[in-house]
Amino acid sequence: PFIKSNLLYSADLIAFFASIENSRTKRGDFIDKLKIFIKDIDDIRIDATSQDSLSLSIFEKGVDGSIPLATMGDGTIRLFRILAEIEQCRGSRLMIDEIDNGLHFSKQKEFWRVILIAAKENNTQLFITTHSHECLVNLQKAINESVELNYYRDELACYTIHKNTIKNDIEAFRYDYLNFDYCINREIELRGEES
Fold it and tell me: Given this model, what pLDDT does residue 127 score?
């Protein structure tokens, strides 16, 4: 599966969540992971908004009533979608375009931590694109500052795509985590450029 950069809330999220909601453990883990964006989340339910349509509703502690997921911010919906898709891709792979779209810079490090933990728990390999240097820096911080992400020091690879205009060719350069970390620390451009 491929998550497009502009794909956020759609009916497929209801089906994805339905496959999680009946497991108390999976449901609880899913809700805990959403707390980086919805601090007081207490529950998620599939609600009938009309006779013919269903929606996802968020319940928060101390609030009487629900909030439709579709009305929440892009970052929250994006996290919900990515977590649901990771669960659906258990034992397989998931491709995510422009992962940083809709994410506030202050939440990116924790966002990375949560999705990398979810990917490891579900044995899901992630292929992710970004043009954001800040997003790459926050990935590095998440891995370096979290013992639970040490696994990714051996698993992460960063690829830079470079268009060589002289050869009229595209070149790819692979950086293992050690080299990725070095480049981030030395502010070496990893996002590609034309030559």
Answer: 96
Q: Reduce the DSSP state of residue 57 to 3 states and report it.
A: strand
Q: Name which of 38-47, 52-61, 153-162 the model is least confident about.
A: 52-61
- Count CA within 13 A, CB hemisphere, residue 48: 3
- Do the beta carbons of residue 180 and residue 158 sit within 8 Å? yes
Q: What is the DSSP string of 3-42?
A: E-TT--S-THHHHHHHHHHT-HHHHHHHHHHHTTTSTTEE
* Relative orientation angle of helices 74-88 and 108-121, to the nearest 10 degrees: 10
- % of residues, the chain, pLDDT over 70: 92
Q: What stretch of H or E contains 126? A: strand 125-128
pTM over 0.90: no
